[in-house]
Amino acid sequence: MEGNCVKNSKKLLITGGAGFIGSNIAWYFAAHGYQVTIFDNFKRRGTRQNFAWIKSKLPKVKVIIGDIRNRQDLEKAVEGQDIIFHLAAQVAVTTSVVDPRVDFDINALGTFNLLEAARVEGKKPIIIFASTNKVYGGMEKVRIIEKNNRYAYKNLPDGVSEEVQLDFHSPYGCSKGAADQYIRDYFRIYGIPTVVFRQSCIYGPRQFGIEDQGWIAWFIIAETLGLPITIYGDGKQVRDILYIDDLVKLFEIAVEKIDITRGKIYNVGGGVKNTLAVWTQFGPMLHKLFRKKIAVTFSDWRPGDQKVYISDIRLVEKELGWKPKVGVEEGIKRLFDWVQANRTLFK
Questions:
Q1: Secondary structure of 170-202 in the HEC alphabet?
Q2: Residue 317 has pLDDT above 50, yes or no
Q3: In the chain, N or C terminus with fewer CB closer than 10 Å?
Q4: Confidence tier at 7 by pLDDT (50, 70, 90)
């Protein structure tokens, strides 16, 4: 994603700003004139490489090494900010099952710490929060059918809307769901202009995917490095996927149209036009990209894993005039090319 026109000099804080989504956002907004500060503990794989890339292009980007579990770190970082993109999180369901306390402390308590820092500071910065489709749980009551070797909703032709009942499933779903609701309520109670994006699968360059999270990038990275690939479930499960550039643009629109977006929750993903079956469709695409048959093993389904999740993005399209522009094959080819050009980063 490129950017070279200066729009303004507002102060923007990005928690988790050296991660996959954060680094892409930091690059775009800094290139468009925002005074960007990255807040990160640099514990996640790839964060130092991402930050080095940003600084090589845009040396004025600031960094605060801190942890959202630490109130004092956040209070210092939030001071004077006009906008906050809250991306810092524990991001894997499997990790949350193994260590639910750490998951809670990062996702729920960390978000509460951020909101309190913003409330006490008094400036009422715009806060956009990266939530998750996992707040809808396993959606066991939604009828699923198998169609063309992939699962599909029987009665949700447009996907999952914001009106679907919340059903937190797994410690990760609970911690992110609690944060999701706290973010919304700090608009209602304290007037802080918050926006919640319940995001589906986001993918693209600068994603250092691992087996537990970032599956599209992980499959490409694993095959590139000759590592084993495990499919949890039968590979027919379907997700809507959204290329990173489209998500970054939505963050920009949400800020520009804050009079519309404040206090709102939006389901954000590729929608029904950008879906992918985890292996029955993605597998053949990888065979073609790598020009060989790729071996995988299969294992049991993971807790809270949905057979289908497709975002109904009609609300965000209607209110903000946004829709994905990068299709599935184009986006995956871009990610594949980036991994091949930067394979030394993964060793």
A1: HHHHHHHHHHHHHHHHHHHHHCCCEEEEEECEE
A2: yes
A3: C
A4: low
Residue type, 160: V
Select from 19, 128, 43 the least CA-distant residue to 81.
128
Residue type, 172: Y
Distance of CA 2 to the CA centre of its chain: 20
Instruction: Fill in the amino acid letter for 322.
Output: W
d(CA 274, CA 266): 17
DSSP letters spanning 83-146: EEEE------HHHHHH-HHHHHIIIIIHHHHHHHHHHHH-S--EEEEEEEGGGGTT-TTS-EEE
Q: Which CATH architecture has domain 11-346?
A: 3-Layer(aba) Sandwich (3.40)
User: What does the alpha-carbon distance between residue 123 and residue 136 come to, in Å, rounded to a whole number?
Assistant: 33
Annotated catalytic residue 172? yes
Which DSSP string corresponds to 281-299? THHHHHHHHHTS----EEE
pLDDT tens-place string over residues 212-254: 889 999 999 999 999 999 999 999 999 999 999 999 999 999 9
Of the candidates 98, 88, 101, the one whose C-alpha atom is nearest the C-alpha of residue 40 is 88
> Active site residue: 151, 172, 266, 309, which one?
172
Domain segments of the chain: what residues? 11-346
> Tell me: the pLDDT tens digits for 238-295?
999 999 999 999 999 999 999 999 999 999 999 999 999 999 999 999 999 999 999 9
Taking all residues of the chain, what is their mean pLDDT, rounded to a whole number?
94
Q: Provide, rounded to the nearest whole percent, the portion of the chain with pLDDT above 90.
A: 89
pLDDT of residue 3: 46
User: Which residue in this structure is represented by tokens 């790729």?
Assistant: 294
Rounded distance between C-alpha atoms, residue 130 and residue 132, angstroms: 7
Question: Distance between CA atoms of 86 and 169, rounded to whole angstroms?
Answer: 22
Torsional sign, CA 30, 81, 204, 330: negative
* Banded pLDDT at 155 (limits 50, 70, 90): very high
Separation of CA 201 from chain center: 7
